[in-house]
Each structure stands twice: as structure tokens, then as C-alpha cells.
Task: inverse folding
């Protein structure tokens, strides 16, 4: 039996120091100071939470999105933002490598990272040896990230020694096709680090439960405590049942042991299982699809245009004066 413990943080948002407001005339653009007083305290908070996990057996732990708090600087000038991403990612990777090695856990964490000349919103999974075992780049980038963040180009599977992992970051989960592709590729667990919780609060948990049930996968979600409604980091099983959640509590861990070898199967008294001869729901879904009917899903989408420099300057000024919200 492949029994593992899933765990997720539910961290509060630390206060934002207005000295680091990139639209303020008094903005202090000292990256060393920002790393010391903005990035490091946020990493400390997540690491402190992760150290509270009961480390019995195999543990796969997940943090919330943007552990370095770099999204506070999405309206900053490009050279400054790029350097901050490079520096903060270096610090985060060093700290989380050490944490995974010292605790023996698999730790998945989300941060902005500079790769091949572009910024991405990524999840890296650190193994008990401290090495990055796999990485995913956010594929559905919302408008407020587009100025600085590139789209990832692949819904990839990360093979760990105990199972097959898929990842969707925040906005990715709003697109049901993404979860379906991961399930078709064999994902047994979908990790979902996020700041928000869906198009609106009440639909957030319903969305995750539906994605889990439709695709017969576990979903492990780590949500920021305060953004877009309080709570709930959670573990959801392939039937869409919430096995555990962090409620509306701040700076807590939610965890649950699962067994990846228990199939999602209808019992033998269920008449459709008897008639089809196939009780495994996941396998039935794969074999009974009608892909020839779904061709509209592959038609090209009209992507939002990223504002040019002049338009960005106008939008920044509107935010700075309070006419618009970021």
C-alpha cells in the first residue's frame, strides 16, 4: 500500500511595509533591504509552519502561492522586478533545500523564478535529498501577472518515488481542461498552491471538489488565509470528499494520511458496474470519453493583449492616485 501523508500550510499575510511601495515617491528600491525585511520574514513563516508537521512516514507538503511576496512588486519597473525575482528565488531555493533535507519530507513550494530569460510562476518539489525533483510553470497567467510573468507551455507530470504528481497554480484551476489533461496523463494527486479561492468565495471549494471527482484525483490545496476570503487549505479525495481542511484559522497546517492504492471504484452492487463489467471509475472515464465531440475545446483562444509601456504608465498612475485598484 502506498500510504503517504499530505500536508498544506495556511499562512497569514504579513503586513506590507509602505517603504517598499513601488508606486510611492518614497519607494526604497534597495533589494538587499527588501530581501532582508520583506522576503525573509515570509520564508521564515512558511518554514516555521512546515516544521510543525508530524513527520511519520512519507510526507508531501505544500505551501501557498508566492512564498517570497514578490507579487507586491508587480507594478515595479522591469529591471528592478527581474533582479528581485532572481535574488528572492535563490534565497527561497537554498532555504527549502535545507528544510527538505533536514526533515526528510517532499516539499512543494511556489515562487517566481527567472528561467531562460523570462519570469515564471513556478512550483518546485524538493526531495528529501534537498534536490529539486520536478518543476511546473503556471500555464494560465491572469491579467495582473501578465506584465512580468510568462505563460508556462506544458501541463507536465512529476514522477516521485511514491506516485505521479500534477500541479495547477491558482488561476490554472479555473480551467477544467487543465485538470483533465493532468488526469489523462496519470496524475494521482494534483497540487494547488493559491492566493485566491475561485471566481468568488462560495464557489471555491465547490470547484476543487468537482475537479477532484471528475478526474478521480486527490487535490491538495494550500491557500493564503486572507486573500479573497478566509481559508481553506484542504485535502480532497477522488470522490470530491473533503478529508480535512484548515477552516478559517490563521498560520496552521492541515494534514491527512491517504492510500494511493485504493481505487476509485463503484461497489459490486451498483448496477452500472455490473452491466459494464468495469467498476473502476477513473478507467471508465478514460475509455468512455467521446473526444470527437470535444474539438471545439482545441480552437484557438483570443488572448488578452499585454498593455504597452505607455498604457502601463497610465494604469500605474491610476493605481497610485487611488482611481483604480490593483
Result:
Amino acid at each position: 500500500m502506498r500510504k503517504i501523508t499530505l500536508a498544506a500550510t495556511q499562512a497569514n499575510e504579513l503586513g506590507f511595509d509602505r517603504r517598499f511601495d513601488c508606486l510611492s515617491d518614497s519607494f526604497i528600491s534597495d533589494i538587499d533591504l527588501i530581501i532582508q525585511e520583506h522576503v525573509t520574514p515570509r520564508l521564515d513563516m512558511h518554514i516555521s509552519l512546515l516544521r510543525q508537521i508530524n513527520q511519520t512516514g512519507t510526507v508531501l507538503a505544500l505551501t501557498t502561492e508566492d512564498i517570497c511576496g514578490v507579487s507586491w512588486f508587480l507594478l515595479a519597473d522591469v529591471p528592478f522586478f527581474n533582479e528581485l525575482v532572481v535574488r528572492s528565488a535563490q534565497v527561497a531555493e537554498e532555504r527549502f533545500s535545507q528544510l527538505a533535507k533536514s526533515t526528510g519530507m517532499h516539499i512543494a513550494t511556489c515562487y517566481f523564478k527567472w528561467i531562460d530569460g523570462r519570469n515564471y510562476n513556478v512550483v518546485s518539489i524538493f526531495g528529501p535529498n534537498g534536490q529539486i525533483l520536478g518543476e511546473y510553470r503556471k500555464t494560465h497567467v491572469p491579467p495582473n501577472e501578465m506584465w512580468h510573468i510568462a505563460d508556462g507551455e506544458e501541463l507536465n507530470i512529476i514522477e516521485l518515488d511514491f506516485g505521479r504528481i500534477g500541479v495547477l497554480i491558482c488561476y490554472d484551476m479555473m480551467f477544467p481542461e487543465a485538470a483533465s489533461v493532468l488526469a489523462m496523463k496519470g496524475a494521482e494527486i494534483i497540487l494547488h498552491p493559491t492566493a485566491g479561492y475561485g471566481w468568488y468565495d462560495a464557489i471555491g471549494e465547490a470547484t476543487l471538489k468537482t475537479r477532484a471527482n471528475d478526474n478521480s484525483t486527490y487535490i491538495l490545496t494550500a491557500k493564503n488565509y486572507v486573500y479573497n476570503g478566509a481559508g481553506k487549505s484542504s485535502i480532497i479525495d477522488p470522490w470530491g470528499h473533503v478529508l480535512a481542511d484548515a477552516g478559517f484559522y490563521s498560520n496552521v497546517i492541515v494534514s491527512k494520511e491517504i492510500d494511493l492504492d485504493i481505487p476509485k471504484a463503484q461497489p459490486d452492487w451498483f448496477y452500472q458496474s455490473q452491466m459494464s463489467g468495469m467498476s473502476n471509475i477513473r478507467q471508465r472515464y478514460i475509455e468512455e470519453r467521446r473526444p470527437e465531440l470535444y474539438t471545439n475545446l482545441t480552437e484557438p483562444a483570443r488572448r488578452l493583449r499585454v498593455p504597452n509601456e505607455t498604457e502601463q504608465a497610465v494604469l500605474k498612475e491610476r493605481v497610485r492616485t487611488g482611481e483604480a485598484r490593483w
Notes: The chain has a mean pLDDT of 92. The first strand starts at residue 3 and ends at 10. The radius of gyration is 21 Å.
